Amino acid sequence: MSLPSGFGETVELLRRTTVVVGGDRRTMGSGLIVGREGTIATNAHVVRSAAMRVQLWDGRVLEAALRERDPARDLAILSVRAEDLHAASLGDSAKVRPGELVVAVGNPLGFIGAVTSGVVSAVGPLRGLGPSSWIQSDVRLAPGNSGGPLSDASGKVIGLNTMVSGRLGLAVPSNALRQLLARTNRTPRLGITVHPAPVSMQGRNLMGLVIMSVGRGSPAELASLMAGDILIGVDGDDLRGLEDLDAALMDSEERVLRLQFLRGDRGFIRAASLLLPRVQRNAA
Q1: Active site residues
Q2: Torsion-angle region of residue 217: left (phi > 0), alpha (psi -120 to 50) or beta?
Q3: Could you read off the pLDDT of 131-166 as tens digits, one per residue?
């Protein structure tokens, strides 16, 4: 197979947009810089806690905040405080065809920025994995590759590597990632990072969201929410997980969101009203 001119330089640029995503020492995956201001895409299964860190190509290690999570498509969006990062260019996964040369970059088994290549085997749903489309290729993946880019020969990212099925590597198509990024940009932000935790009170078993941090000047801070508070309800309904809070935010344009939460000894349920900022509904 003949490689296009400048292929080595293309791969090197792709490596520089790939990051290490990790929590504790036992968990490590890959991620992709998709925004110069610090937006990182990865797999949802890589993001196992609220205390995540991202290591950039230049060696910097930055705290990462979870902005969006889509377990159904195994995608997550993180953000780090950085500027002028080199971001990857997303391709159109609808144009991918079997036989195309593809390159995967990631951090398998602790090898930072490892590269492997192959060809696309098929594009579409896979038996046993529901109706969602996958890009299937014969690239060699290992633990740690999850969340890293799969690109075409020109360096356009056409998917995020997710898992191995049989001998094939499976990647979430880039167009699914585009949809999640668009949704992330349309969603009002509370300015908090949270971590799910079970809560038992007054004979009720709930799924709470522990506030890990509150952004300065954010709607959450203006409503006097604090780190350590536990969110248990939104607009009078019990929270069953982060997805319920995301859904409430997606339904909001410019209105008051009412949160129920616990603080301190959890003796009684408190309430906070947050005025959500207006967001652009036509963001791409």
Answers
A1: 45, 74, 146
A2: left
A3: 899 999 999 999 999 999 999 999 999 999 999 998
